[in-house]
Write a structure and sequence with these properties.
about 210 residues, mainly alpha, elongated, transmembrane helix, transmembrane, membrane, Metal_resist
């Protein structure tokens, strides 16, 4: 035991709580995607690109999950209106137009979502396959990034149409609602495709 010069024992340092396992896993992922390397070689570029793509996919997934589940939650509560139309205070005519607009949007992006899910699953199934070159992995990762950018553009166009439907006061509310969204959510394979399947009964229940 360490002692001061006076002979008294030094005070014991407070014990730190062990880091939770999920936090340890998150730290490992962050360290893996952001670990600095010198010089920057192809493998490090792939690592950085994959980290960026994961962030983009999560942002897109969070926004689209909110768009879908918000209306489902309020429908179950018996309100019969989607979260967005209720928050913005849409009139009956606006709600009718928004419902058709929203259904067209999901019909447009559903094939892209399915393609992104399948490509992402194929990409990460290679976790134990070391035969792929860095150039091949980079090409696959860039394809995922291109689809994510395309989804961003389609989603922005959708909200531009929603904004055109709004009054000036409703546009301010819409801007605030979108700015307040965290942009993170689940993007698991079966769960995502299930929430966005082309089942007409599920789609018709989203908003009345």
């Amino acid at each position: 035991m360490f002692r001061w010069h006076s002979g008294r024992p030094a005070p014991a340092l407070p014990r730190r709580n062990p880091m939770p396992e999920p936090t340890k896993l998150l730290c490992r992922i962050i360290n893996w995607t952001t670990k600095p390397c010198t010089p920057m070689n192809d493998r490090n570029r792939v690592r950085m690109l994959i980290g960026i793509i994961i962030a983009l996919v999560l942002l897109n997934a969070g926004l689209l999950t909110w768009m879908w589940l918000g209306s489902q939650r309020h429908h179950r509560e018996g309100d019969g209106r989607s979260y967005l139309s209720k928050t913005l205070g849409f009139s009956e005519e606006q709600r009718t137009k928004y419902r058709a607009m929203r259904q067209r949007h999901f019909k447009t992006i559903r094939p892209l979502l399915d393609s992104m899910r399948q490509e992402r699953q194929r990409f990460f199934r290679q976790v134990n396959d070391s035969t792929q070159t860095d150039a091949q992995l980079t090409q696959q990762a860039r394809q995922l990034e291109e689809n994510s950018v395309r989804l961003d553009v389609l989603t922005l166009r959708h909200f531009q149409q929603v904004s055109a439907l709004c009054t000036p006061e409703q546009r301010q509310k819409l801007q605030k609602v979108l700015a307040d969204r965290p942009g993170f959510g689940s993007f698991s394979g079966s769960g995502w495709s299930g929430k966005h399947r082309s089942d007409s009964s599920r789609r018709d229940r989203s908003e009345k």
